[in-house]
Design goal:
324 residues; 8-stranded parallel barrel; TIM Barrel; 11 helices; alpha/beta
Length: 324
């Protein structure tokens, strides 16, 4: 007869806390923020509880997050002007460049990460500059990616997060940084970015859905995991400091395997669709929002993620702080 009875360790909250194997910390969390040229804060329709922040209000919301203990933000810009070449990506007075300068001046200790891509800056919605055949022009896109990256660090960005899934993007950005004496700036690479339906609310929010074709020719097929490990190692070899898996919940197995393979920190992005699902079912009173949110974040952490990018950042931080 077995003498083991695991239930003995579950009887009370103090006992459960004593033997808990995985713990969430506010230090694990990065908050995504949408910055715009709008003249007032507006709620994002497809992402209840998330907002477009004008430049004159972004410091206020960041200050609130930092008071909760959140020390990192991932910035997405909504430009005023879009064109086929995404020229606003390299505008020193572009929305991201302005936001970074403003935020860094007010919060010099904050970790500022900028999304480095093309989709919301182009009229076609793809993650690079297109050639005459409608395919991404790799060399042209990579050259502009270098200029975009440098404009972000010139403004004060601490980390760059290239998300366009163009082969060689990390190598090109690292080369540009090193040659411009920015060896101290980091790269958080969207190394493993699946072609996922879970990006829907985000694409609506920034109006970045492709106007023709799909992104399946350059984002990863959802059925592949060996390819994910190859992508992770390639980006590490090219100079990435942190590897990210996106989305998170449908790819917990990928996070686990990537964590085993790489020695760098692993980030996971709980994307807009994951956020919107929890918000939608909680609004129907079919699940408790806080409990399901914290359970999902704990699952991401347990799978091996060192860093979690989540739209629930502030709310999760409040709950974690209340439990400490």
């Amino acid at each position: 007869m077995s003498l083991q009875k695991p239930i003995r360790l579950r009887k009370t909250a103090p006992l459960r806390n004593l033997v808990r194997e995985t713990r969430l910390s506010v230090d694990d969390i990065i908050r995504p923020i949408f910055v715009t040229h709008f003249n007032k804060q507006l709620e994002i329709e497809t992402m209840p509880g998330q907002f477009y922040f004008p430049l004159n209000e972004v410091e206020k919301t960041i200050d609130a997050s930092m008071k909760l203990g959140i020390n990192g933000v991932l910035l997405f810009g909504i430009p005023e002007i879009r064109d086929d070449l995404g020229t606003d990506t390299i505008n020193e007075n572009g929305i991201i460049q302005q936001a970074v300068r403003k935020i860094k001046q007010s919060f010099p200790e904050l970790i500022i990460i900028t999304d480095v891509c093309f989709c919301q800056y182009t009229t076609h919605g793809h993650c690079g500059i297109l050639n005459k055949f409608g395919n991404i022009d790799r060399k042209c896109s990579l050259k502009q990616l270098q200029v975009q990256a440098l404009s972000h660090v010139d403004a004060g960005a601490d980390f760059l997060a290239p998300s366009c899934m163009i082969d060689g993007m990390v190598k090109y950005i690292r080369k540009a940084l090193n040659e411009s004496e920015y060896e101290d700036r980091g790269i958080l690479s969207y190394a493993i970015k699946y072609a996922s339906s879970f990006y829907g609310p985000f694409r609506d929010a920034v109006d970045s859905s492709p106007k023709q074709g799909t992104r399946r020719s350059y984002q990863m097929d959802p059925g592949n995991i060996r390819e994910a490990l190859k992508e992770a190692q390639m980006d590490i070899d090219e100079g990435a400091d942190i590897i990210m898996v996106k989305p998170a919940l449908p790819y917990l197995d990928v996070i686990k395997e990537v964590k085993k393979q790489v020695s760098s920190p692993v980030a996971a992005y709980q994307v807009s669709g994951e956020y919107a699902m929890i918000k939608a079912v909680s609004q129907k009173n079919w699940m408790d929002e806080n409990e399901s949110m914290m359970e999902s974040l704990l699952g991401i952490k347990r799978s091996g993620a060192d860093i979690i990018i989540t739209y629930f950042a502030d709310n999760a931080a409040r709950i974690i702080n209340s439990q400490s």
